[in-house]
Amino acid sequence: MFAAAGHHAPAFGNIGYAACEVALLPEPPEFCIAELSSYQIESSPSLTPNIALWTTFTPDHLARHKTLSRYYDLKARLLSRSRLQIFNGDDVYLRQMAQEKRYPISEYACWTSIHGKDKLPGNPDLGAYIDESGWVTIQGEKLFPAEALKMPGQHNLQNMLMAAAAAHFFGIGGGGDREGDAGVSGGAPPFGTDSHLEEC
């Protein structure tokens, strides 16, 4: 979405480049988009993203982290350091976390759901969802048809909705009658350029 809007925004971490390769690129990125594993988060205690996305939580990597609580805390600390949090409201564990108002959830967090506004566990006015007419709607603004995301399967659609929310908060995204284009450049990015977001 960022690249389609004309931005130099390499993906790195678990996808695309290694972080050290991005640091050595001849042209500095406008946006740094990283998918980070818990191993990478563990070794980056000072990383402070503008936007952090928490896509799912399952009992993985326990051979390294030993307990589910420690694994959770690693991800939670990254989210707590971000300026804006985006959570997958369709993930069972994260929904439970919202109901319990657990750390690190901010009252200003953006929750997402592909199943409509009434399925958002957080403040619906701050959320991103696919409405009953099949449009991606973020913080009350109807942006583009969900079919523009062109990803099979609910899991992929959830991830794309979260990515669309992140792009929107950086001033990138479709709007109103721009049919089918989730990569149209929008207004001035509220976080400016030379920004970054992380997904865990």
Q: Specify the helix fraction band.
A: 25-40%
- Rounded to the nearest angstrom, the radius of gyration is 16 Å
By CATH, the topology is UDP-N-acetylmuramoyl-L-alanine:D-glutamate ligase
* Structural class estimated from helices and strands: alpha/beta
> Between the first and last Cα atoms, what is the distance in angstroms?
18 Å
State which percent range the strand residues make up.
Answer: 15-25%
Record field, number of beta strands: 9
From the spread of the alpha carbons, the general shape counts as globular
In CATH, the architecture is 3-Layer(aba) Sandwich
Give the overall average pLDDT.
82
Strand order of the largest sheet: 1-2-9-3-4-5-6-7-8
Helix and strand element order: EHEHEHHEHEEEEHE
Query: What is the count of helical runs?
Result: 6
Molecular structure report:
This protein is an alpha/beta fold. It has one domain: Mur-like, catalytic domain (UDP-N-acetylmuramoyl-L-alanine:D-glutamate ligase). Helix content is about 25%, strand content about 20%. It has helices at about 20-25, 40, 60-65, 70-80, 90-100, 155-170, and strands at about 10-15, 30-35, 50-55, 85-90, 110-115, 130, 135-140, 140-145, 195-200. Strands 1-2-9-3-4-5-6-7-8 form a nine-stranded mixed sheet, with helices on both faces. About 40% of the residues are buried.
